Amino acid sequence: MRSRKFLKAEQAPLVWDAPGLIAGVDEAGRGPLAGPVVAAAVILDDMRPIPGLADSKVLTALQRERLHDQILAKALCCSIAQATVEEIDTHNILQATMLAMRRAVEGLRLKPVKVLVDGNRLPTLDVLAEAIVKGDARVKAISAASILAKVHRDRLCEQLHTEFPHYGFAGHKGYGTREHLEALQRHGACVHHRKSFSPVAAALARTGGVLSVMRPAESGKPAEMAGSAVP
Q: Most CB contacts within 10 A, which of 98, 122, 141, 211?
């Protein structure tokens, strides 16, 4: 009779992997105080290599943008998914990240025989999967996924900036920088903030649970600020 340890081998590295398509998966946005967590899944085309693929964190914004376009043009297929702020607050950031990763894999047009995931945890998938620590620097498909997820989330934060310019989302991308924490102190939290994260929870406590509604200034007038209670 096979041991329980043997039965768990489907989620561990195998010496004899079945031939077929391999997908790389990574996420962006676990640490920020605001915005969704984004995940991407990529199946590269061995016949169309993409020079310069690397961990998105070591690339410049311009390099990421250029590689982003090449990945979309040359990969066999790509998928980008996310878990919302509400899902993060409901399930916690780890479970929301796993949810976004699963959605990204399920969104692939082609089904891989194996999925390689950056980190040391795996989402629940219906295909063979392997977690690879620092995989975004070691596996090209994961590097590609990290770039797609990062660029997509950065663009989302730029959209948030147009809606809530006083928080500076375009600059810090939702991370807890001094600028962001000072904006939370001055203006409170908005609807895009993760209420389960402690700096945001503290800001909500100061405002009695009221969310800020910031509108960009028009014709040189001061920005208008309103409020709505957290449900």
A: 141
Q: What is the pLDDT of residues 5-60, one digit of tens each?
A: 444 444 544 445 567 999 999 999 999 999 999 999 999 999 999 999 999 999 99
Structural domains in the chain? Answer: 4-161 (3.30.420.10), 164-229 (no CATH)
CB burial readout 56-88, b (16+ within 10 A) else e? beebeeeebeebbebbeeebbbbbbbbbebebb
Contacts of 39 (CB under 8 A, 6+ apart): 25, 26, 27, 28, 80, 81, 82, 83, 97, 100, 101, 103, 104, 145, 149
pLDDT in tens, 63-107: 999 999 999 999 999 999 999 999 999 999 999 999 999 999 999
Do strands 114-118 and 37-43 pair parallel, antiparallel, or not at all (unpaired)? unpaired
The predicted pLDDT at position 219 comes to 33
DSSP assignment letter at 213 = E
